[in-house]
Amino acid sequence: MSRTSARELIDSVIDRGTYRSWDTPPDYGDIGADYAATLERAREKSGVDEAVLTGEGEVGGRRVAVICSEFSFLAGSIGAATARRIIRGIERATDEGLPLLLSPTSGGTRMQEGTPAFAMMVSITTAVARHKDAHLPFLVYLRNPTTGGVMASWGSSGHFTFAEPGALLGFLGPRVVELTTGTGIPEGVQSAENLCERGIIDGVISPEGLRGSVRRTVDVLMPDVETAEPTPPPDAVPDGRGAWESILRTREPSRPGGGHILAALEDRSVPLSGTGDGENDRSIRAVLARIAGRPVILVVQDRHQQPPLGPDPMGPGALRFAQRAIRLAESLQIPLVTVIDTAGAELTKEAEENAMAGEIARTLTALLDVRVPTVSMILGQGCGGGALAMLPADRALAMHDAWLSPLPPEGASAIIHRDTEHAPEMMEAQGVAAEALLAAGVVDEIIAEPEDGADLVDRVLGAIGHALWTLETDPERVGREQRFAHYREFALGS
Questions:
Q1: Beta-ladder partners of 52
Q2: pTM recorded for the entire structure
């Protein structure tokens, strides 16, 4: 496939006439004549002075820093001068508070410089970490090809990672792998599309489409308007509705779920895909989005993707994906919102052997520990540990038909009565319905169900938006220590 040059990518992403280079002439120190001649030929061939260009420009009128590799300069390889240019570019972006788009294409370390250049991948990664410490957005766009130390360091360090269609991406290129091990890598394994399917990168986007993704990310994360108090949602009027009635309503396939919420936010959101570690369970989905004018990380359980409505049981990988989203919210220092709607976690041999119980515990811990404002919403079904894992929050909401139970209703009946016919009375006795949850202190607020089910998504987003505003205006209700104290009091009293 053809390769996209650094200048072509910059021209396709940056507003016309706004790009300014940050580059200064590279300093190679005392190098041999052969290497100097090689560098001169590379400059003539590529039209650039090194294997990376750095600078800034505007995307939709907003300043963005850009660091972009050039493959035609010695296969985009990283030497000491290249590394220093990258580091200075990242540091300048950090100092000036700029979002950073980093787009590598590289075969890895420059062989003419050996181990010292190789070790500078650590220094680049350190600069990346400092940029993240400043809670600034860091986007990576992988181009064809990206392999070696580049892929194994800063190329895999983004908050969001996208790739060029058809790009070859991997730890080592296929030719090097075959010559080193004697065994080739099957075709397609190192493709951008396969890595996206496996949850290693977040999306495959054409160079022409990258501008839209960058602009949407920056617009969501860095709003420039003051946000007023959203309209409060209508509180539910207690009516003593039966738990079983609510359970049946939330089991209706026509009731909107997490996927419908994400669809409503599509024009102001950036999706995440998978854990980044090779898992991509679609029963839980996550996006960067703007709700009520505020940037958030939104994590939803998508009931329509889970049995009996869909093909993807909520396994350990889904909760590991949720944990990635939690870490991202903390890294960007933006609120985290979870939406609970599940018939329960996966009950299989594979789930047990992949630490289902452990991942529930780790998700609970992550939500209690995270140092950003948090809101949880029980949208409908809240069944078992898979639901409980996403409940802890500074403010917990529930729709009036929502419920939370230790086991599936039929399972609770089977334990006590050795049948499933007693499920309705078991649910009443266990206090699973929203009104009982409010009385027990499990949730802080019940939101009225809209008369028209089609309005459910708007009602949910409105309630979440108002909860975020409430926490924003009362910071003493926010944070790790507040959560710890709240849940201690829930169990032990004051």
A1: 69
A2: 0.92
DSSP E strands, 133-275: 138-142, 160-163, 203-204, 269-271
What Å distances lie between residue 265 and 286, 324, 358, CA to CA?
A: 12, 20, 32
Cα(491)–Cα(494) distance, rounded to whole angstroms? 9
Cα 57 from Cα 101, distance rounded (Å)? 11
pLDDT in tens, the chain (494 residues): 678 999 999 999 999 999 999 999 999 988 999 999 999 999 999 999 999 999 999 999 999 999 999 999 999 999 999 999 999 999 999 999 999 999 999 988 898 888 888 899 999 999 999 999 999 999 999 999 999 889 888 899 999 999 999 999 998 777 777 767 778 788 888 899 999 999 899 999 999 999 999 999 999 988 766 678 888 998 888 887 789 999 999 999 999 999 999 999 998 999 999 887 777 888 999 999 999 999 999 999 999 999 999 999 999 999 999 999 999 999 999 999 999 999 999 999 999 999 999 999 999 999 999 999 999 999 999 999 999 999 999 999 999 999 999 888 777 777 888 877 888 788 888 889 999 999 999 999 999 999 998 899 999 999 999 999 999 998 888 989 999 999 999 999 87
At position 212, the amino acid (one-letter code) is: G
Closest CA to 201 of 276, 299, 100: 276
Identify whether the C-beta of residue 123 lies closer than 8 Å to the C-beta of residue 78. Answer: no
Neighbouring-strand partners of residue 378: 340, 398
Domains belonging to the chain, first-starting first, are 6-220 (3.90.226.10), 233-492 (3.90.226.10)
